[in-house]
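Hi, can you check this record?
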Amino acid sequence: MSVSAYNLDRTQQAQHPTASLEGSMNNGVTTRHTLTRPVTSAGRDKSNDICIDAPVISAFHFQIVYDGDQYMLIHPHPSRQETTNGLLYQNRHINGKESFRQILSHGDTFRIGNEKGIQVT
């Protein structure tokens, strides 16, 4: 099974922002996950807040952390030292052993694995 990407969608409502991640699989299936916690974990393991059942995803792949005024992508997941396939952020390949932190903006897109991996918006 091959996978696609995830995208951040953030709307400001009064003083409390609402954000969501949208995941697109290569098979056409799209899912949306509202970010309601200060820390959201994503990976293949069912204990994650966002479980992505695809071989290209590590058991604990990444986290999205909200610190009060911004969302940050953290790779690899802090409970792990690496992921098997890394990710692709803004056409930059982040290998599985590379520590990566990125403040996310509305509409950011990254892929898990490579340019053909799961797309996250």
Summary: DSSP finds no helices and twelve strands in the chain.
